Amino acid sequence: MTEAGKTGLRALRVALWGAVLAAGLGVSWFFVAGGGAPRPPSVADQIGQGAYRLTTTSGEPFTQETLRGAPSLVFFGFTHCPDVCPTTLGDIADWQEIAGVEIRTFFITVDPERDTPEALADYVGWLPGAVGVTGTPEALAEALDAFKIIASRRPLEGGDYTMDHSAYVMLFDREGRYNRIFSYQTDSAKAAESLRRIMGG
After folding, report:
1. Disulfide check for 47: which of 26, 65, 102, 178 has CB 3.0–4.6 Å away?
2. pLDDT digits over 75-121, tens only?
3. Partners of 132 in beta bridges
4. Which domain CATH number covers 75?
5. What region does 78 belong to: left with phi over 0, alpha with psi -120 to 50, or beta?
């Protein structure tokens, strides 16, 4: 397959996962550019809530209570991700620079088999405020459900595999309440303005 074909397939996978999520939640507002539309409390209040218990790369527990105390971004990905994950982390760095703020960012792996705490710490260590998060497959399954994330393992040639997953970033306020999402490669200026507002800038 040509490089252009591969790029097209990657883009298609991102679009398909977004479509599946929107259908699953049944709310068209979920993918409004920049996440500017009001959120129905009956749906929004459930996002990020649950009995999941994961572990950060610093050895601290990551639960729904972790989201309290300060605004935060949550992104699900994996360290072997060829394009979406590194691009998204780069975008978050741009948002922070434009906004002039540092917001804590939780990068939760969807590939615990390969993403050790050491690998995660190295992967996100360059991004200000970023912390890697992992856990047992069972705990991660609970977290995927709590955050309304879709992730699945896809075999590759030669016995290797990759992970298809929802490709957006979630923003939570200082009370741990879901605020909005930023879709893949959303407008940086709009995202930065959202960060500035939620950080009180």
Report:
1. 178
2. 999 999 999 999 999 999 999 999 999 999 999 999 999 999 999 99
3. 107
4. 3.40.30.10
5. beta
Phi and psi based region of residue 45 (left: phi greater than 0; alpha: psi -120 to 50; beta: remaining): alpha
User: What integer pLDDT is reported at residue 41 of this predicted model?
Assistant: 58
Task: Return the exposure string of 81-120: e unless at least 16 CB atoms fall within 10 Å of the residue's CB, then b.
Answer: beebbeebbebbbebbeebebebbbbbbbbbbeebebebb
- 3-class SS letters over the chain: CCHHHHHHHHHHHHHHHHHHHHHHHCCHHHHCHHHCCCCCHHHHCCCCCCCCCEEECCCCEECHHHHECCCEEEEEECCCCCCHHHHHHHHHHHHHHHHCCCCEEEEEECCCCCCCHHHHHHHHCCCCCEEEEECCHHHHHHHHHHCCCCEEEEECHHHCEEEEECCEEEEECCECCEEEEEECCCCHHHHHHHHHHHCCC
Assign 201 a pLDDT band (cuts: 50, 70, 90). low
Q: Which of 5-14, 21-30, 145-154 has the lowest mean pLDDT?
A: 21-30
Total structural domains in the chain?
A: 1
Domain extent, residue 77, equals 3-198
Residue 180: which of 188, 192, 172, 190 has the closest Cα? 172
pTM of the model: 0.80
